[in-house]
Design a protein that fits this description.
The protein contains 5 helices and 22 strands. The protein has 365 residues and is mainly β.
Length: 365
């Protein structure tokens, strides 16, 4: 049998069932999710923040000399240095970012890609310049309808060679909360997180926050980059209509209680009062209004703390009087729009936006 040439094939990969493919496992060696026990941290330590990179991490020996090309429908096109960007007013925002493919590994059949189960999320303090301030100085023309962001990472996906790029509609790009970021949790960006400059788009899934930002282009037509039009599209049916992936869906995770088995990660805990706690979030700055904890299918409302900012996750807590035996714990969140995590995953061809409730099996002794 002749193997498919990955550099020429433009076909979508066929869906699979069963064990993860060696290529999927290879992606898990390059990318990493949060450790669920680290949900205890209000701000995710940088080394524990989730990580997804499509191609190689560009080698940038030093930020000196790094420039961003400003092009397209602007009055003042040209290169802007990182030093000049840093001279503009800056701000720090606490933002929860989640990968759009988080939960893909729970779907069946699934699209072969990074096989996240639920750990592709993190919250950090991001410091940078509002994109709007830079765009104001470059002078957007009236017919500029989209702003495209191109990174320095380049590779192939389904036969298409391209630099990773995404775009935002003009109105979204001009939000004061979209940042050109150079620091994460008070220190310079790490190479894998976009050093020396990246975009952070609060409230959106992580694919919008382009890393290693090299070019900003104002367009008078929709951006047609591969990652914009051929990826990150909801497809409820493999060959059906698509909808762009944008804002994060409401979601919650719990810290697995007790102690784990090394290999299976099964949980063991002692009978009696058990503190069950975790985090909940939603997209677009929409607050979480309620978190419920299910014990063997019986749901009770948890105590929900106020969120520390419009784009940061909220903490929740519940006390469970654990009885000996085998139990299933679950959590689900509802946001101010009235959206609630589903009890079962909604299938998507690319595995995007799976916000099914979080389940943990425990043994109580």
């Amino acid at each position: 049998m002749t193997a498919t040439n990955p550099f020429t094939s433009t076909e979508r990969r066929p869906h699979v069932e069963g064990p993860f493919h060696a290529h999927e496992l290879g992606l898990t060696g390059r990318n990493s999710g949060i450790l669920l026990e680290s949900l205890r941290h209000d701000v995710t330590p940088t080394g524990l923040h989730y990580l997804l990179n499509h191609f190689d991490v560009p080698y940038v020996p030093a930020e000196a000399g790094w420039k961003v090309d400003i092009a397209g429908r602007v009055r003042n096109a040209g290169a802007v240095s990182l030093d000049a960007i840093k001279l503009l007013p800056s701000r720090t925002l606490r933002v929860t970012l989640e990968c759009a493919g988080n939960g893909r590994g729970l779907l069946t059949p699934r699209y072969p890609s990074m096989p996240w189960t639920g750990e592709a999320v993190g919250t950090a303090e991001w410091t940078g310049t509002p994109l709007r301030d830079l765009l104001d100085r470059t002078g957007l023309l009236d017919d500029a309808m989209e702003i495209a962001f191109i990174g320095a990472d380049r590779g192939f996906d389904r036969g298409h060679e391209h630099d990773y790029g995404r775009s935002l509609k003009r109105e979204a790009a001009l939000s004061e909360d979209v940042l050109l970021v150079w620091a994460m949790n008070g220190t310079p960006l790490l190479p894998q997180h976009g050093y020396p400059l990246r975009l952070v788009v609060p409230g959106w899934y992580g694919m919008a926050s382009v890393k290693w930002l090299r070019r900003i282009e104002a367009l008078n037509k929709p951006y047609d980059g591969f990652q914009q039009i051929s990826s990150y599209q909801y497809r409820p049916a493999p060959d059906g209509p698509t909808t762009p992936v944008t804002l994060m869906r409401v979601k919650s995770l719990m810290v697995p209680p007790g102690i784990p088995n090394f290999y299976t990660r099964a949980r063991m805990l002692d009978a009696g009062p058990v503190a069950v706690f975790g985090r909940a979030w939603s997209g677009g700055g929409v607050p979480v209004s309620k978190v419920e904890v299910g014990v063997d299918g019986v749901w009770r409302e948890a105590e929900l703390e106020p969120r520390p900012g419009p784009y940061a996750w909220s903490s929740w807590r519940f006390t469970w009087n654990a009885a000996p035996g085998e139990h299933e714990l679950a959590c689900r969140a509802t946001d101010d729009n009235g959206d609630t995590q589903p009890l079962e995953p909604r299938w998507d061809s690319g595995g995007f936006g799976n916000n099914v409730m979080h389940r943990v099996q425990v043994t109580v002794r």
